[in-house]
Design brief:
CATH architecture of the largest domain: 3-Layer(aba) Sandwich
Number of domains: 2
CATH class of the largest domain: Alpha Beta
Bound molecules: S-adenosylmethionine
Strand content: 15-25%
Oligomer: single chain
Radius of gyration: 17 Å
Structural class: alpha/beta
Protein backbone atom coordinates (compact mmCIF):
# COMPACT_ATOMS: atom_id res chain seq x y z
CA UNK A 1 0.00 0.00 0.00
CA UNK A 2 2.93 2.35 0.77
CA UNK A 3 4.12 2.17 -2.85
CA UNK A 4 0.62 2.79 -4.17
CA UNK A 5 0.35 5.93 -2.04
CA UNK A 6 3.78 7.13 -3.25
CA UNK A 7 2.98 6.45 -6.93
CA UNK A 8 -0.44 8.10 -6.82
CA UNK A 9 0.79 10.95 -4.62
CA UNK A 10 3.77 11.73 -6.83
CA UNK A 11 3.88 10.59 -10.48
CA UNK A 12 0.15 10.08 -11.01
CA UNK A 13 -0.69 13.30 -9.13
CA UNK A 14 1.55 15.19 -11.56
CA UNK A 15 -0.04 13.31 -14.50
CA UNK A 16 -3.53 14.34 -13.29
CA UNK A 17 -2.27 17.94 -13.18
CA UNK A 18 -2.30 17.74 -16.99
CA UNK A 19 -5.96 16.68 -17.13
CA UNK A 20 -6.99 19.57 -19.40
CA UNK A 21 -4.46 18.99 -22.23
CA UNK A 22 -4.91 15.22 -21.87
CA UNK A 23 -8.66 15.40 -22.41
CA UNK A 24 -8.27 18.00 -25.20
CA UNK A 25 -5.73 15.91 -27.12
CA UNK A 26 -6.29 12.29 -26.00
CA UNK A 27 -2.54 12.07 -25.19
CA UNK A 28 -1.78 10.83 -21.67
CA UNK A 29 -1.52 13.31 -18.81
CA UNK A 30 1.71 11.49 -17.91
CA UNK A 31 3.30 12.43 -21.25
CA UNK A 32 2.24 16.04 -20.89
CA UNK A 33 3.71 16.18 -17.37
CA UNK A 34 6.90 14.10 -17.82
CA UNK A 35 7.63 14.42 -21.55
CA UNK A 36 7.77 10.63 -21.88
CA UNK A 37 5.36 7.69 -21.73
CA UNK A 38 4.64 5.82 -18.49
CA UNK A 39 6.31 2.62 -19.74
CA UNK A 40 9.45 4.47 -20.97
CA UNK A 41 9.65 6.19 -17.58
CA UNK A 42 9.34 2.83 -15.77
CA UNK A 43 12.19 1.51 -17.93
CA UNK A 44 14.50 4.51 -17.53
CA UNK A 45 14.03 5.72 -13.94
CA UNK A 46 15.96 3.72 -11.34
CA UNK A 47 13.61 1.63 -9.17
CA UNK A 48 10.46 3.06 -10.83
CA UNK A 49 9.53 -0.29 -12.46
CA UNK A 50 9.66 -2.40 -9.28
CA UNK A 51 7.91 0.39 -7.34
CA UNK A 52 5.12 0.45 -9.96
CA UNK A 53 4.70 -3.34 -9.72
CA UNK A 54 4.55 -3.17 -5.92
CA UNK A 55 1.82 -0.50 -6.28
CA UNK A 56 -0.11 -2.77 -8.72
CA UNK A 57 0.01 -5.49 -6.06
CA UNK A 58 -2.20 -3.40 -3.78
CA UNK A 59 -5.07 -3.97 -6.26
CA UNK A 60 -4.72 -7.62 -7.22
CA UNK A 61 -7.06 -9.34 -4.74
CA UNK A 62 -8.81 -11.07 -7.66
CA UNK A 63 -5.80 -13.15 -8.74
CA UNK A 64 -6.75 -16.28 -6.69
CA UNK A 65 -10.36 -15.97 -7.94
CA UNK A 66 -9.09 -15.80 -11.53
CA UNK A 67 -7.06 -18.96 -10.94
CA UNK A 68 -10.27 -20.73 -9.86
CA UNK A 69 -12.60 -19.28 -12.53
CA UNK A 70 -11.11 -21.19 -15.48
CA UNK A 71 -10.83 -24.96 -15.89
CA UNK A 72 -7.08 -25.61 -16.27
CA UNK A 73 -7.53 -29.42 -16.21
CA UNK A 74 -6.53 -30.01 -19.83
CA UNK A 75 -3.68 -27.48 -19.81
CA UNK A 76 0.00 -28.13 -19.12
CA UNK A 77 1.73 -24.78 -19.69
CA UNK A 78 0.76 -21.17 -18.99
CA UNK A 79 2.40 -17.90 -20.05
CA UNK A 80 1.62 -14.68 -18.21
CA UNK A 81 2.16 -12.09 -20.94
CA UNK A 82 3.42 -8.77 -19.52
CA UNK A 83 3.08 -10.63 -16.23
CA UNK A 84 4.75 -7.95 -14.10
CA UNK A 85 5.18 -9.05 -10.49
CA UNK A 86 4.55 -12.75 -11.27
CA UNK A 87 1.86 -12.89 -8.61
CA UNK A 88 -0.90 -13.95 -11.02
CA UNK A 89 1.23 -16.80 -12.36
CA UNK A 90 2.13 -17.71 -8.78
CA UNK A 91 -1.60 -17.88 -7.85
CA UNK A 92 -2.35 -20.06 -10.90
CA UNK A 93 0.58 -22.44 -10.28
CA UNK A 94 -0.24 -22.77 -6.59
CA UNK A 95 -3.90 -23.56 -7.38
CA UNK A 96 -3.03 -26.07 -10.14
CA UNK A 97 0.02 -28.18 -9.20
CA UNK A 98 0.12 -29.98 -12.58
CA UNK A 99 0.96 -26.73 -14.44
CA UNK A 100 4.27 -25.10 -15.28
CA UNK A 101 4.49 -21.48 -16.33
CA UNK A 102 6.40 -18.52 -17.74
CA UNK A 103 6.36 -14.84 -16.89
CA UNK A 104 7.08 -12.82 -20.02
CA UNK A 105 7.86 -9.11 -19.58
CA UNK A 106 10.41 -6.41 -20.29
CA UNK A 107 13.84 -7.26 -18.84
CA UNK A 108 13.86 -4.62 -16.08
CA UNK A 109 10.65 -6.11 -14.57
CA UNK A 110 11.77 -9.75 -14.36
CA UNK A 111 13.73 -9.56 -11.06
CA UNK A 112 10.45 -8.73 -9.27
CA UNK A 113 8.70 -11.77 -10.77
CA UNK A 114 11.69 -13.99 -9.99
CA UNK A 115 11.61 -12.91 -6.35
CA UNK A 116 7.87 -13.58 -5.95
CA UNK A 117 7.88 -16.89 -7.82
CA UNK A 118 11.04 -18.03 -6.05
CA UNK A 119 9.31 -17.56 -2.71
CA UNK A 120 6.07 -19.36 -3.63
CA UNK A 121 6.62 -21.96 -6.39
CA UNK A 122 9.07 -24.86 -6.85
CA UNK A 123 11.99 -23.77 -9.04
CA UNK A 124 11.39 -26.38 -11.77
CA UNK A 125 7.81 -25.16 -12.36
CA UNK A 126 8.49 -21.65 -13.67
CA UNK A 127 10.79 -19.55 -15.80
CA UNK A 128 11.00 -15.89 -16.74
CA UNK A 129 11.54 -14.73 -20.31
CA UNK A 130 12.45 -11.20 -21.40
CA UNK A 131 10.87 -9.76 -24.51
CA UNK A 132 8.62 -7.20 -26.12
CA UNK A 133 4.97 -8.12 -26.58
CA UNK A 134 4.83 -5.94 -29.71
CA UNK A 135 7.53 -8.13 -31.23
CA UNK A 136 6.61 -11.74 -30.28
CA UNK A 137 5.60 -13.86 -27.29
CA UNK A 138 6.65 -17.42 -26.29
CA UNK A 139 4.97 -19.92 -28.61
CA UNK A 140 3.22 -23.26 -28.18
CA UNK A 141 1.69 -22.91 -24.71
CA UNK A 142 -1.81 -23.98 -23.66
CA UNK A 143 -3.03 -20.90 -21.76
CA UNK A 144 -2.00 -17.26 -22.13
CA UNK A 145 -2.78 -14.78 -19.33
CA UNK A 146 -3.09 -11.05 -20.07
CA UNK A 147 -3.89 -9.10 -16.93
CA UNK A 148 -4.30 -5.33 -16.86
CA UNK A 149 -2.36 -4.90 -20.10
CA UNK A 150 -4.92 -4.00 -22.79
CA UNK A 151 -6.00 -1.13 -20.54
CA UNK A 152 -2.70 0.68 -21.25
CA UNK A 153 -2.95 0.75 -25.04
CA UNK A 154 -5.09 2.06 -27.90
CA UNK A 155 -7.00 -0.32 -30.18
CA UNK A 156 -4.25 -0.48 -32.79
CA UNK A 157 -1.54 -1.46 -30.27
CA UNK A 158 -3.94 -3.95 -28.63
CA UNK A 159 -4.63 -5.59 -31.99
CA UNK A 160 -0.86 -5.91 -32.60
CA UNK A 161 -0.07 -7.51 -29.25
CA UNK A 162 -3.15 -9.75 -29.41
CA UNK A 163 -2.18 -10.89 -32.91
CA UNK A 164 1.25 -11.85 -31.55
CA UNK A 165 -0.44 -13.91 -28.83
CA UNK A 166 -2.77 -15.53 -31.39
CA UNK A 167 0.23 -16.42 -33.54
CA UNK A 168 1.97 -17.99 -30.52
CA UNK A 169 -1.12 -19.99 -29.42
CA UNK A 170 -2.03 -23.49 -30.47
CA UNK A 171 -5.48 -23.72 -32.12
CA UNK A 172 -6.70 -25.41 -28.92
CA UNK A 173 -5.19 -22.68 -26.71
CA UNK A 174 -7.02 -20.08 -24.66
CA UNK A 175 -6.30 -16.48 -23.74
CA UNK A 176 -7.51 -15.25 -20.33
CA UNK A 177 -7.87 -11.48 -20.19
CA UNK A 178 -8.32 -9.72 -16.84
CA UNK A 179 -9.77 -6.24 -17.25
CA UNK A 180 -12.59 -4.00 -16.11
CA UNK A 181 -15.59 -3.93 -18.45
CA UNK A 182 -17.58 -0.71 -18.89
CA UNK A 183 -21.28 -1.58 -18.56
CA UNK A 184 -23.73 -0.49 -21.25
CA UNK A 185 -26.90 -1.81 -19.59
CA UNK A 186 -27.43 1.06 -17.15
CA UNK A 187 -26.01 -0.81 -14.14
CA UNK A 188 -22.92 1.48 -14.32
CA UNK A 189 -20.43 0.04 -11.83
CA UNK A 190 -18.31 3.02 -10.93
CA UNK A 191 -14.71 1.67 -10.99
CA UNK A 192 -14.48 1.01 -14.77
CA UNK A 193 -15.63 4.56 -15.50
CA UNK A 194 -13.25 6.17 -13.00
CA UNK A 195 -10.41 3.95 -14.17
CA UNK A 196 -11.12 4.89 -17.77
CA UNK A 197 -10.19 8.47 -16.87
CA UNK A 198 -7.28 7.41 -14.69
CA UNK A 199 -5.84 5.27 -17.49
CA UNK A 200 -5.96 8.25 -19.86
CA UNK A 201 -4.02 10.30 -17.31
CA UNK A 202 -1.50 7.57 -16.40
CA UNK A 203 -0.86 5.67 -19.62
CA UNK A 204 -2.98 7.08 -22.45
CA UNK A 205 -5.06 3.91 -22.14
CA UNK A 206 -8.73 3.15 -21.57
CA UNK A 207 -11.32 0.72 -20.24
CA UNK A 208 -13.56 -0.92 -22.82
CA UNK A 209 -17.11 -2.18 -23.15
CA UNK A 210 -17.66 -5.84 -23.96
CA UNK A 211 -18.17 -4.78 -27.58
CA UNK A 212 -14.80 -2.98 -27.41
CA UNK A 213 -13.03 -6.14 -26.18
CA UNK A 214 -14.81 -8.23 -28.86
CA UNK A 215 -13.61 -5.80 -31.47
CA UNK A 216 -9.88 -5.79 -30.51
CA UNK A 217 -9.94 -9.57 -30.03
CA UNK A 218 -11.65 -10.03 -33.40
CA UNK A 219 -9.05 -7.85 -35.13
CA UNK A 220 -6.42 -10.36 -33.92
CA UNK A 221 -8.25 -13.54 -34.96
CA UNK A 222 -9.70 -14.27 -31.50
CA UNK A 223 -13.29 -14.57 -30.30
CA UNK A 224 -14.74 -13.91 -26.87
CA UNK A 225 -15.93 -17.23 -25.44
CA UNK A 226 -17.09 -16.40 -21.90
CA UNK A 227 -17.01 -13.73 -19.19
CA UNK A 228 -16.61 -14.34 -15.44
CA UNK A 229 -17.04 -11.60 -12.82
CA UNK A 230 -14.21 -11.13 -10.29
CA UNK A 231 -13.72 -8.87 -7.28
CA UNK A 232 -13.11 -5.13 -7.63
CA UNK A 233 -15.46 -4.91 -10.64
CA UNK A 234 -12.90 -6.80 -12.72
CA UNK A 235 -13.77 -9.56 -15.20
CA UNK A 236 -12.05 -12.63 -16.58
CA UNK A 237 -12.64 -12.76 -20.35
CA UNK A 238 -11.88 -16.11 -21.98
CA UNK A 239 -10.90 -15.86 -25.66
CA UNK A 240 -10.38 -18.64 -28.18
CA UNK A 241 -8.97 -18.72 -31.72
CA UNK A 242 -11.73 -17.54 -34.08
C1 LIG B 1 -0.21 -2.51 -15.71
S1 LIG B 1 1.13 -3.64 -15.61
C2 LIG B 1 0.32 -5.20 -15.38
C3 LIG B 1 1.20 -6.23 -14.78
C4 LIG B 1 0.52 -7.57 -14.46
N1 LIG B 1 0.02 -8.22 -15.65
C5 LIG B 1 -0.56 -7.39 -13.42
O1 LIG B 1 -1.75 -7.52 -13.71
O2 LIG B 1 -0.19 -7.09 -12.26
C6 LIG B 1 1.63 -3.69 -17.31
C7 LIG B 1 2.81 -4.60 -17.57
O3 LIG B 1 3.11 -4.55 -18.97
C8 LIG B 1 4.50 -4.64 -19.12
N2 LIG B 1 4.87 -4.13 -20.45
C9 LIG B 1 4.74 -2.87 -20.91
N3 LIG B 1 5.18 -2.79 -22.18
C10 LIG B 1 5.59 -4.04 -22.52
C11 LIG B 1 6.15 -4.60 -23.71
N4 LIG B 1 6.35 -3.83 -24.80
N5 LIG B 1 6.45 -5.91 -23.73
C12 LIG B 1 6.25 -6.70 -22.62
N6 LIG B 1 5.71 -6.21 -21.47
C13 LIG B 1 5.39 -4.91 -21.42
C14 LIG B 1 5.02 -3.78 -17.98
O4 LIG B 1 6.38 -4.00 -17.74
C15 LIG B 1 4.10 -4.21 -16.85
O5 LIG B 1 4.60 -5.31 -16.16
Amino acid sequence: MRDMVLLYGEEFHRAWGAVVPAIRTGTSGFEHAFGTSLHAYLRDEPDAGPRFLRAMNAGNVFFPEAAAAFDFTGARTVVDVAGGSGLLLSAVLQAHPHLTGTVFDLPHMLPVAERHLGATVEAHRYETVAGDVFDKVPAGNDVYLLSRVLQDWDDERCATLLANIREAMEDTGRLLVLERVVATDGTAPVLPLLWDLHLLMAAGGRERTLAGYRSVLGAAGLRLESVHPLALETSLLVAAPA
